[in-house]
Amino acid sequence: MGRSPCCDKLGLKKGPWTQEEDQKLLAYIEEHGYGSWRSLPEKAGLHRCGKSCRLRWTNYLRPDIKRGKFNLQEEQTIIQLHALLGNRWSAIATHLPKRTDNEIKNYWNTHLKKRLVKMGIDPVTHKPKNETPLSSLGLTKNAAILSHMAQWESARLEAEARLARESKILHYQTKPSSHHHHGFTHKTLLTTWTSKTNQGNADHQQQQLESPTSTVSFSEMKEPSSAKIELVGSSTCLNLIKEPENDWFNSTVHEFEATEMAGGVDEGFTGLMLAGDSLGRSFSAEKNETVKERSGGGDCSNYYEDNKNYLDSIFSLVDPSTPMMF
DNA sequence: AACCAATCCAACCGCCAGATT
DNA sequence: GAATCTGGCGGTTGGATTGGT
Predict the structure, then answer these.
(1) pLDDT attached to residue A166
(2) The HTH myb-type domain covers which part of the protein (predicted)?
(3) Is A113 near strand C, with its CB below 7 A from some atom of it?
(4) Whole-angstrom distance between the N-terminal and C-terminal Cα of chain A?
(5) How far apart, in whole angstroms, are the C-alpha atoms of residue A45 and residue A43?
(6) Domains of chain A with CATH codes
């Protein structure tokens, strides 16, 4: 037999949370942390089910949540990661510190998806809806590579998420009231991840953390053992995967680049729709020049160029050496 | 001012994988 | 090993808000 039922649903309140309920939940977690959501509501004096409490906490009350409008960089990150990962909102959220998966999902459904559709881009495949077959240009191979990368990234994100969860639990279970802000963002996630993947390679790790697309600082924290890592942009975690030991990954990227140099471009150009064409076109301007020269201009070349911009922007997330301009 | 439609977003629902008994 | 619980995830809903007429 299993455990006793999670909660007696009879008589439990549903719907919007009141300020009083919020305060009760906050006060309880501040004082005791969250060990078991099942028993929490009763202990906290709430007539809600544990699931509702967890949702309220993770999506609204958590102190490390950033609210308000998404900036351009965040929009771009969402679109790029969605192209790679699909509707895996929690995975996408791991690259957007302080944003919840629910918020990202909502923003995608209400803003970004519509914008893509408006531009004639399929929000599921990130391809133009009237795209003509371009396999002769090596697209199939690139698509396979991207797909392969997405699989690799998915597996890595799962590991990351697991580590993050462990860190969160440890943090709140051991020091429930030791902080009021930024308790367990990518700080714990990254330190755990890097320590597991980069042991004995501190210099290199530091180098990676100081990549051009992320801002990482180790400064005074309330918890002496923790380093404060503030992510600007989304690439820090992705940067970590391009380590020397990630032979497959590097070879895949190189393979892709080689194919690209041979004239191949891949599908999708949602990067272009960000804040109008001008911003999209600014991605990887340096590389685009080369493409322009090769392609010889004209409407068709613009299409290829645009696609390349899109891919460049994705690979900029992966490869910090590739410039990404905003 | 009143009505309606569109949009936003917090919260719920149902499913799943892993944990627990 | 089966039954059941738990936490997490993605999809969906519906009330609130905003904008247009």
Answers:
(1) 52
(2) 9-61, 62-116
(3) no
(4) 57
(5) 5
(6) 19-61 (1.10.10), 72-326 (no CATH)
